[in-house]
Amino acid sequence: MFTKILIANRGEIACRVIKTARAMGIRTVAVYSDADAGARFVKLADEAYRLGPAPAAESYLKADLILDIAKQSGAQAVHPGYGFLSENEDFAAACEAAGIAFIGPPASAIAAMGSKSAAKALMETANVPLVPGYHGDNQDEQFLKTQADNMGYPVLIKASAGGGGKGMRIVERSDDFIAALASCQREARASFGDDKVLVEKYLTRPRHVEIQVFADSLGGCVYLFERDCSVQRRHQKVLEEAPAPHLPAATRQAMGEAAVAAARAVGYVGAGTVEFIMDVESGQFYFMEMNTRLQVEHPVTEMITGQDLVAWQLKVASGQPLPLQQHELAIHGHSIEARIYAEDPDKGFLPATGTLLHLVPPVENAHVRVDTGVLQGDTISPFYDPMIAKLIVWGETREAALQQLDAALAAYQVVGVTTNIRFLRRIAANPAFASGDVDTGLIARYHDSLLPAPVAPSSEQLALLAVGETLAAASSDDHAFGALQGWRLNGELTRRIGFTHGEQRCDVLLRYDGKGFVLTIGDDTFHASASLHGKRLAANLGGKQLQATLVRHGLQRVLFTGGERIAVDYLDPYAYEEAGVHGETHMKAPMPGRVVALLAEAGARVAKGEPLLILEAMKMEHTITAPADGKVLAFYFAAGEQVNDGDELVDFEAD
Ligand code: ADP
Ligand code: ADP
Ligand code: MG
């Protein structure tokens, strides 16, 4: 067994590999970019070396530099994780040539599976079932169109070198074929440097079912059952589970054996995934592609088999036989993984960036596992995949696993970057998903119920926010005369506390009667007592005892209570008196982006509607205009600077 390995990756997967290596007494070497100098994986590793600036091309993709560091640090093997160099045959070959074990398949197997077209040709000879289609060398547009016309629409054009859900076009009608082909080729050339395509029949209601395979260098090859990854958005996996719901045992076995045949056909060694697409109506399955690496969703397989797949990888790469044979493997219970992303489902899933001001994952136990590369205080940067964590749950049955999933998602607290947690909870609660009636169209089909309009805070939530605000102000030194005593000294009996939720304004009237609070919100009145310790708020609202976490940052307030998360902005009482188009206004960035240009001078007088600043986000320009006639007091950013969602851009004073 190796005594030291280098991990040529970052974030969550680097942490995951370090965990197993440490448990096996193997020392670890991390490599990092400037953006990751303070990252969790760098701290966890025994040694760490700088690669270069943040962009992957200048850091995590620098194969020669990584190999040099491996040699100099005395690592005997390199684990590539997933993404980056994991499916790069030249890197695998360079490791082999340098006498350093590549913890993955031989370069020849990566090459054989690297092209979807070539892989399909090979699978045909190994008698693995294929989706009807054309995957040959002839790339003439009329020829390809004739192929499509013959197989009947809809068809799917795929970049042969594609991956990560990119380089695919669905074509519904013959007339659209040529234009779709050109667009697919353009994207393929730009993203993968190769415009070769294949054309196949587009299944209208498919499931994505993939098989985990494992082979050793002594001729052994097994399958560790399937994962269902049908819940996808734009061909990218959102939820993954094992085993696949309602999959007949005979189909499982047939798929497993086909996957083993596929692996054997390319002389496979190590962990691999054979992806199949399955027709919901007929139950027929077809080979789609093989991913020659450990997969993002491998934990669900670990949870149902009780095996550590990274440990298997390390054993097999060091020449040992597979830890178990096929008849020794069994499925126990059910596991589901949810990918927690920094993205905003309400803004078209725009990736979100920023600092994780507050991050409390659910407590890990036999049923709940959290694989993550970040801690509270870390930043989600625009340079890499915006995944915050993978939440993996296990239960004796699928129903039990689903219940664990909902509870764990409800307990997940994130403030600072927008996440997809609420969206994931809605999928988990969707009746079709809950009954295991899954296919790749599920999210699109239930789009409206999965992405409803934001719900305004309830009276109970507003009451908690208001007492929390009052207690926080009373306990902070710079408000010695504020809150509690302050307004009693002034003889005010009632105080108005205001919040905004999106465009909506929410007011709470709060009175302190010497014993407790009396709160009025619309038609509701609560008698309340409460205490606040740090972020922990306990309150009794009219006899109902409630626990909450209140995170306050700037004017932002996020309340977690009863499994719900509600975010509002506190209306500063000074600004609040003059709210509207009067007085000083801090204009905030509506989304993360880059300041392109400042269109006025600080100190300048402007008329209502006059452009002040241009922000670019997701390749679109947004103009921030003057909300009233008035004066620009200050700009907080210069042209070219990056801003986060909610950052103050302009200080403006209306006449
Ligand atoms: P997987 O099933 O492992 O996610 P995919 O084929 O979907 O495989 O993706 C291939 C690899 O590309 C992933 O392992 C991951 O590292 C990377 N990847 C996937 N989605 C993204 C993304 N949104 N941004 C950057 N990299 C991604
Ligand atoms: P990638 O390399 O991007 O992962 P895949 O070939 O694995 O590309 O396909 C990604 C996803 O696209 C699948 O999980 C499935 O949802 C969809 N897909 C692929 N092929 C077909 C097909 N023939 N019919 C319908 N959907 C398909
Ligand atoms: Mg795929």
Automatic annotation (TrEMBL):
Domain ATP-grasp: 120-318
Sequence ranges assigned to domain Lipoyl-binding in this UniProt record: 576-653
Cofactors, names only: biotin
Alphabetized InterPro entries for the sequence: ATP-grasp, BC-like_N, Biotin_BS, Biotin_carboxylase_complex, Biotin_carboxylation_dom, Biotin_COase_C, Biotin_lipoyl, CPAse_ATP-bd
Gene3D superfamilies linked to this entry: 2.40.50.100, 3.30.700.40, ATP-grasp fold, B domain
Domain Biotin carboxylation per the UniProt entry, residue ranges: 1-448
Name of the protein described by the UniProt record: 3-methylcrotonyl-CoA carboxylase subunit alpha
Annotated source species: Vogesella alkaliphila
